[in-house]
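Handout, tutorial session.
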Amino acid sequence: MTAYAAVVLAGGAARRMGGRDKPAVPVHGRPMRDLVLAAVADAVPRVLVGPDGALPADVLVTREEPAGGGPVAATYAGLALLGPGPAVVALLAADLPLLTRPAVGALLDTLAAEAGPAAADGVCLVDDRGRRQPLCGVWRVPTLRAALDRVAARRSGPAPGADGAASAGNPASAEDAGRAGQAAALAGASMRELLGELTVRELAWSAAGPPPWFDCDTDSDVRRAEEWTR
């Protein structure tokens, strides 16, 4: 499997880092956000969900609604820019400075090997304690979108404009209202809730070198990442 898209989530509050723009914090002189984007340089398209910055020209930028609405809302916003083409998306946090293209390749290969009725909807890395890292994984776009729809419907009921009369009056407005309703419903939803809608395959990282799943939530994490890559 080689064709894939990438959505990088960069809109967190970074409370444990004093509210700084955490994805812009450098590791060995490069913003963590840039290191993650470099690990998926062959993805088409690449989407960053979060504040704009000095980014490669091919990177699309959007924001979740409302800003700070959490990773599920950000996932919804990112997928909205993919269009109908990509079948697989790498969904990644922007604070993974040790992520590499070989690690992304291992995730893609594992998902590609899944087949049949019991095939997984996605594959994510697990850390050294066996905990899932859902924002370090790859997912089938249609099933991920369907899961987002189910979570939104469960949290809000029918989307605005879903009834036939509203749609008949102004289909475009009804569709926009439906998307806005879904986005609002997903604000504050957890990745655990979203993953509950999916069949997830877990992948333990056993290759040599720093762990690609390592995320930096604190300044000490940043220092540790830099020590790993000296």
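The second record follows below. Compare its token runs with those of the first.
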Amino acid sequence: MSAPDTGSATRRAQWQDEDGTAVLRLVGDWRGAPVVLPAPPAGSQRLRLLAEDLAWNARLASALWQLLQPLAAASRELELDGLPPGLARILTLALPAPQKAAAAPPPAARRPHWVTELGQRSHEAWDQALATLRFVGELLLALGALVRGRSDMRAQDLAWQLDQCGPRSVPIVSLVCALVGLIVAYMGAVQLARFGAQVFIADLVTIGVVREIAPLITAVILAGRVGAAFAAQIGSMVAAEEVDALRTLGIAPVGHLALPRVLALAVTTPLLAAYGAVVAMLMGGLVAVAIFGVEPLAYLNNSLSALTVEHVAIGLVKATSYGVLVGIAGCRQGLAAGRSAQAVGTATTKSVVQSIVWIVVAASALTVLFQRLGW
């Protein structure tokens, strides 16, 4: 069976049936008038193109593409090896690739036994702990190099981090510590009012915020504001291969990037905690005087009596410890981040979670230690 041919005396296009394969024969010079090609037979799944003394240009290539494109999209098998190499190459690149049968989905992976899973998680936790200890060791070596005057840390970097960690954190520390001081004073006064001992609100607020609450709240604020920023900044540098460039130049990333950030937090955290304690004490005094009728001078006198050097020193030691832990967590997660935006986000989240966990554990351990020592 053959389809009617289309063409002139110098060119011809005709479909023929050869053993179930529809064959389009192109003959002659197709570089002249507009190209009109016959439609292929409807029932054939295999189609083949043959050329005899063919002269072609872009018009013929475009016409063949328009003819074959829906056939290729319908997964009809096309054989183009009978065309001139240039024309066959153009059509091969332009036509859609044949659709392959969908592969069978892989069998669902079986969840490992709980003992295996526990072992894997324990192994990962051990590796993370070793990486953290290794980072702390490198940080101590960088601190030793700083003491000897051979550090990669620049003074302007430390000054910049002091500004970012300290003054720029004052507004949020003021707000949160004021609200916490109000809550502590109000909750304590409600209980003390049952015994007519409202005057001791000052002792409760002063000792509570100076020893425990102000350092803890300040550290949590810095973990979310500063520690996350450290992880994001250093993680972005890792993704952009800037940390690799520092190593290539012989500059230790821990000394150049982590040390100024950890030192800045070690300096600013106790100062912010002391400031936050003062704000909380003032707000507690406002609650005691305005709501529970405590005399201002009595509140001030009791606050100064309760504010001993021992309480202040313990609060500052705790705040410094918390600040160092926040800096270590942020910088360690930033340097361990992957080289993608998702990895940087994951490192930022891990830094905040790790900082808060470390702060709570350290607060519990230091509180028990100081109580056992009688301080």
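Points raised in discussion: Residues 151-372 form one domain.
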